[in-house]
Design a protein that fits this description.
The complex is a heterodimer of chains A (506) and B (177). Chain A has 506 residues and is of the alpha/beta class. Chain A has two domains: 1-34, no CATH class; 40-174 and 220-420, Alkaline Phosphatase, subunit A (3-Layer(aba) Sandwich). In chain A, 32% of the residues lie in helices and 17% in strands. Chain B is mostly helical and 177 residues long. Helices cover 79% and strands 0% of the residues of chain B. In chain B, helix 1 (10-42) runs parallel beside helix 3 (86-105) and helix 2 packs across helix 7. Chain B is globular. The chains are: A alpha/beta (506), B mainly alpha (177). Chain A binds chain B through residues 108-113, 116, 173, 175-176, 179-180, 182-184, 187-188, 191-202, 205-206, 209-210, 213, 228-229, 431-433, and chain B through 23-24, 27-28, 31-32, 35, 38, 40-44, 47, 50-51, 53-55, 58-59, 61-62, 65-66, 98, 101-102, 104-110, 114, 116, 119, 171, 174-177.
């Protein structure tokens, strides 16, 4: 007979604790959902541009990139199979903020925007004026979408707030911000090529590059973080210091959407983490995809390491930030959401995002939600999608679910785990937003499987099918074997695409 | 010294301004047409027109700014040096200056370091341009060609000025109301 002593008893009690506590978590969550205390909760969305769940130690990544997010997760709900609706910022953000897929909201192009008839169908409008609605789109691309919804945003903070070099022009046109952004910042004065404005654009470029070259980069061995396409340099600590003073003072109840640019490239780790991951670890080598840029494994591995170090740098700042929020009591009356608009890829010959590929690294994104006063962790494994955030958050705020949304409330926060439900990620930037999608990649995530459809790239459309439970690295394409699950998934995907295209058929 | 006597008349300014307009506006229009296919993917006709209005408004202010340079030189320099042959010298000055500006702008790229050397050389290039202007003005057939060309280009002002006025109005209305 095994020796059962005091230590064994305490171990048993520790193991039993979740079982004892779980009903209490559920009932406590239900209480919050029912707004038992009568107060409206604050909602804080912290979105990180290009943060892949696959590169976070929270989700099992071998490098310790997110110890502070893991610490945050100890009093939060962690969604393990959460997916973006697009593989770059415009569709990713548009879907999150409208609760609709890109093929519905039509924000499918670089510099694209939401369909004009849907401008009032957004999360800020859904929350209504009894909430203070705040947005900080530090990512300028995010501002393409957010500025469309400006009428429903009470405070729209300029993208270069907390920045070191401020040359964005749209802020000087507050009454026509979206048009000014698209015409001036994204065209006449765009930094990435010879400016369309010959005199002022050249002068602005000269002053901008001069000023940015003189920025002290102490603390950042590769230079301070910046946006490669728009004039925006910033230090991570400045951004988080600024935000940590913002939320405790924010007028309640508030809905705050904060879209931070890191860890989007260029990857500029702080000196605490620069070169920290020269650890000899190599990820699985995967075959180069025919739609990739054909980057070498060495290049991908080096880029991945820089990216991981950048994430770790951000996570470090998040740790201090969370401590301040906790000290100020923000967690007691707020839903705090950590998520991303899309991921980042370093495999199959492809680096970054916004390509025809929809493998998990570029669409599997983090979602961690801490509810007011939540003290224990909850884990959800059913697939969820960015379109689910809007109906979830409106429900938590006591608002009706808008009729236009395509998402469903998240399990654990008003919804149920549904492995039979399919969700989509769409890449369609080579299409007009006013016409049917004819050249696109569509991923259907359902149960344990993911079906990827490539249409319009080659003479014949192709499919790939993966079982993500047994093949998380997506190495074995099951499509040739034509398993039973394929038929229904294929039908669902093609029907959904056909339905999305119907309004645009002439 | 009466500076006002050396302010060029509208008749003198028009040819010089027309050269500026052709270069400045054409540069932007070319890039606008490069951009147009992607704009058509995501923007309505009205939004494209608004983008063009903003661009043209910028062009208008750029062109006026550049025009101030020959006017300034005309005022500060002795009449025989600049004002007396304002059209020729002004046209040569803005042509050569805009050529160098376009040369700098064409080297700006996100993939390459900013062409600071070209900026650093600007003062020397400006002096060189001024010298060239005075030297080239001595060549009578060249003087004739430049003046003739500048005069002919004034037809573009009949297009650029109304479009710029409408564009400015659009931008103002959208930002005031």
């Amino acid at each position: 007979m095994p020796d059962f002593n005091r230590r064994s008893f305490l171990k048993l009690l520790g193991a039993a604790a979740p079982a004892i506590l779980l009903p209490r978590v559920a009932s406590w969550t239900d209480k919050n959902l029912a707004q038992g205390d009568g107060e409206k909760p604050n909602v804080i969305i912290l979105l990180f541009d290009a943060m892949s769940a696959r590169n976070l130690s929270l989700y099992g990544y071998p490098r310790p990139t997110s110890p502070n997010i893991e610490r945050f997760a100890e009093h939060a709900t962690v969604y393990h199979s959460h997916y973006s609706s697009g593989n770059y910022t415009i569709p990713g953000v548009a879907s999150l903020l409208t609760g609709t897929y890109p093929w519905t909201n039509r924000a499918i192009n670089h510099s694209g925007v939401v369909k004009r008839s849907m401008v009032e169908e957004n999360i800020f409008a859904a929350f209504g004026s009894d909430y203070h609605r705040f947005a900080f789109p530090q990512s300028v691309w995010s501002n393409f979408i957010v500025s469309q919804f400006e009428k429903d945003v009470d405070t729209l903070m300029a993208s270069d707030t907390y920045g070191k070099v401020n040359y964005l022009l749209n802020e000087y046109f507050p009454n026509d911000r979206n048009a000014a952004l698209r015409s001036l910042d994204d065209f006449a004065f765009k930094m990435e090529r010879e400016p369309a404005s010959l005199l002022f654009g050249t002068l602005q470029s000269a002053f901008y590059f001069r000023e940015s070259s003189l920025l002290p980069s102490d603390g950042y061995p590769r230079g301070i973080p910046h946006n490669a396409n728009y004039p925006l340099y910033f230090r991570l600590e400045d951004v988080f210091d600024g935000l940590s003073t913002l939320f405790p003072e924010m007028k309640s109840p508030h809905l705050s959407y904060v879209h931070l640019f890191p860890p989007h490239a260029p990857y500029r780790a702080s000196n605490r983490f620069d070169s920290k991951f020269i650890d000899g670890w190599w990820p699985n080598v995967k075959p180069i995809h025919r739609f990739s840029e054909g980057a070498s494994n060495a290049k991908l591995t080096s880029a991945r390491r820089s990216y991981d170090e950048y994430i770790a740098s951000i996570d470090w700042e998040l740790g201090n930030f969370f401590d301040i929020l906790e000290k100020e009591g923000v967690f007691e009356n707020s839903y705090v959401i950590i998520t991303a608009d899309h991921g980042e890829m370093f495999e199959r010959g492809e680096k970054a995002h916004s390509t025809p590929l929809l493998y998990d690294p570029v669409i599997h994104i983090p979602l961690v939600i801490s509810a007011p006063g939540q003290k224990t962790r909850q884990d959800i494994y059913a697939p969820t999608n960015a379109v689910d955030l809007l109906p979830t958050l409106t429900g938590l705020a006591g608002k009706p679910t808008p009729s236009w949304v395509e998402g469903k409330p998240l399990p654990g926060l008003g919804g149920v785990e549904d492995y039979e439900r399919g969700t989509f990620t769409i890449e369609a930037k080579m299409n007009s937003s006013f016409a049917p999608l004819t050249r696109a990649t569509v991923a259907l995530r359902k149960g344990n499987h993911k079906l990827i459809y490539y249409t319009g790239y080659e003479a014949q459309d192709t499919f790939e099918l993966f079982d993500l439970e047994s093949d998380i690295e997506e190495l074995t394409d099951l499509y040739p074997a034509q398993p039973a699950v394929l038929k229904l998934m294929k039908q669902e995907l093609l029907d959904s695409l056909s339905d999305a295209n119907k309004p645009y058929l002439k | 010294m009466n500076f006002t006597k050396r302010i060029p008349s509208l008749g003198q300014l028009a040819p010089v301004y027309s050269i500026i307009v052709v270069v400045i506006y054409a540069w932007s229009i070319l890039r606008f047409f490069w951009r147009l296919p992607s704009l058509l993917y995501s923007s309505t006709a009205g939004e494209i027109a608004i983008t063009y209005a903003y661009l043209t408004t910028v062009n208008f202010f750029e062109s006026i700014t550049i025009l101030l340079i020959p006017i300034f030189l005309s005022i500060i320099l002795p009449g025989r040096w600049f004002f007396d042959r304002f059209v020729t010298k002004g046209s040569l000055l803005v042509s050569l200056g805009l050529w160098y500006l376009a040369y700098i702008a064409s080297h700006i790229s996100a993939e390459a370091p900013f062409p600071y050397d070209l900026i650093r050389w600007s003062p020397a290039v400006a002096v060189l341009i001024l010298v060239l202007v005075f030297l080239l003005d001595q060549i009578s057939f060249l003087r004739k060609i430049v003046t003739e060309l500048a005069d002919r280009l004034t037809v573009f002002l009949f297009i650029s000025i109304p479009i710029s006025a409408v564009s400015l109005l659009v931008v103002l209305i959208r930002n005031i109301f």
